[in-house]
Amino acid sequence: MAIKMNRQSQETNGAAAAKIAPGPRDRSWAGFYRAYTRDPLVYLTQLQKEYGDVVTLRAYNYRVFFLSHPDHIEEVLVTQSRKFFKGRILKANKRLFGNGLLTSEGDFWLRQRRLAQPAFHRARVASYGETMVRFADQLIAGWRDGETRDVHTEMMRLTLQIVAKTLFDADVDHEAKEIGKALEAIMELNSNFRRVVLTPPWLPTRHNLRAMLATRRLNRIIYRIIAERRASERDAGDLLSMLLAAQDEDGSRMNDQQLRDEAITIFLAGHETTAIALSWTWWLLAQNPEVEARLHTELDTVLAGRSPQMEDLPRLPYAEKVITESLRLYPPAWGMPRLAIEDVEIGGYKIAKGCGVSVSQWVVHRDRRWFDEPLAFRPERWDGELQKRLPRFAYFPFGGGPRQCIGNAFAQMEATLVLATIAQKFRFRLVADHPVIPLASITLRPKHGIRATLEARNITPRQAGGESKVEATMADSAAD
Ligand code: HEM
């Protein structure tokens, strides 16, 4: 894709710019649309390489700024966050999310965030650790050595069960499955950029009708769960109980519609992203045997074959770094759009009201100014003081500022516990001819899944610092 330079004057929706941002000259919407939809990851990376940290592009009367410097991203997400709303694509998913935390704005969002926050308090989240490990154990109990499975499907199934249990106390498998199927259908339809941007939701197309039916199905299930819970007045210890009990300063609580919107938002935001994070982690581990071996050493030393518990997490620093590094290279939320609701100045550039702003974790996390050998999977890079040395927004898989992911602690705990549970018992050998391609839809998922053969591990408990039987066995088989 050829991107031509244009450093000449460009008016920004009628407002005079302090500095003129560079960007491609091709002003046609079709040109941008073609390049972007073909592969947004490649396109955004190329834009930054060719034009730098602030790039602008105009398609007809819509101007968008791509910002790739951590300091500028901090301006958008933290310092001047009040001047931005969420972007168009996320808003297009409003029929699914309703006015939930992910899509709402202003005072309404703030009230809902305050109400929901206690449900994500560290102590509350910690109480879900046992559930996470139990479901991971149940999943692998059905796995057999030598089988080939789609790792991504398995992780989706697992995180769906975990969020269904922790959110709704629903561990009836068919209920979780029913919700999952309806959600998948809607996400599938909504994740297509072309459909979202070009087809108004009210148009009775085949896709819109299917999305509407799936949304109705989903609503029926969620409203039933809410009604049953209200009637029983039971504190199930789940997130729904917390949301039901949450009270504003004036004593008001969420109505059914608000509960539905928040529940679906949490369900969706909490299930797919974590499954994706785990899927990419397994894929990276399978290609980096030395990292995998170091992870096994840590797990075998600390856990010696037993299932992990919350209390083990501080003693599993390498497992945590594996997740941190995986979220750097394959951030499930790969880009975040915003809309300027008033004129803003960032880095000397004027961004006029009505302009779009886009920041991308994919681009920034792979920038060699912040990370040596940025494409290498090296959990060790997080050993030292890297986190402290980095500009705050050189690494931001969970966003930042007031709209930072509310499930941040939940997700990191879940990913590390699931990794520790499964990696003790199994490793994955990638199926050679299966293409693994990152698809940047709303999230960054593996387009055709990740097919792998399961290899059961034989763990022999070892002393801290001692040589493991597993390693010895591995070395033997390597010598063979
Ligand atoms: C690895 C897993 C996850 C990643 C990478 C992730 C990433 C993100 C990001 C980047 C945002 C900010 C979006 C923006 O500002 O435009 C966000 C928001 C959000 N996330 Fe997550 N998330 C993950 C897991 C979870 C989990 C487990 C939950 C719930 C159980 C959750 C619930 C939410 C909600 C409700 C919001 C909206 C918060 C608000 O605007 O107030 N996420 N997430």
Bound molecules: protoporphyrin IX containing FE
Note the main sheet: 5 strands, mixed
Characterize the overall form: globular
So how many helices?
A: 20
User: What's the arrangement of strands in the largest beta sheet?
Assistant: 1-2-8-5-3
Strand % is 5-15%
Alpha-beta content class: alpha+beta
Number of strands: 12
Rg for CA atoms = 23 Å
Distance between the termini: 48 Å
What value does the average pLDDT take?
86
State the low-pLDDT regions, or none. 1-17, 464-480
Q: Which percent bin holds the helix content? A: 40-55%
Short description, anyone?
51% of the residues lie in helices and 10% in strands. It is built from 20 helices and twelve strands. A five-stranded mixed beta sheet has the order 1-2-8-5-3. Strands 4-12-9 form a three-stranded antiparallel beta sheet.
Task: Give a written overview of the molecule.
The protein has 480 residues and is an alpha+beta fold. Helices cover 51% and strands 10% of the residues. The chain has helices at residues 29-38, 40-51, 70-79, 88-92, 94-97, 106-116, 122-126, 129-141, 151-168, 173-190, 193-198, 206-232, 239-245, 256-287, 289-302, 317-329, 361-365, 386-389, 408-425, 469-479, and strands at 54-59, 62-67, 84-86, 148-150, 336-340, 344-346, 349-351, 356-359, 426-430, 438-440, 444-446, 451-456. Strands 1-2-8-5-3 form a five-stranded mixed β-sheet. Strands 4-12-9 form a three-stranded antiparallel β-sheet. Strands 6-7 form a two-stranded antiparallel sheet. A hairpin with a 2-residue loop joins strand 6 and strand 7. Helix 8 runs parallel beside helix 19. It is globular. The protein starts with 28 loop residues before the first helix and ends with a helix. 41% of the residues are buried. Bound molecules: protoporphyrin IX containing FE. Protoporphyrin IX containing FE binds next to helix 14 and helix 19.
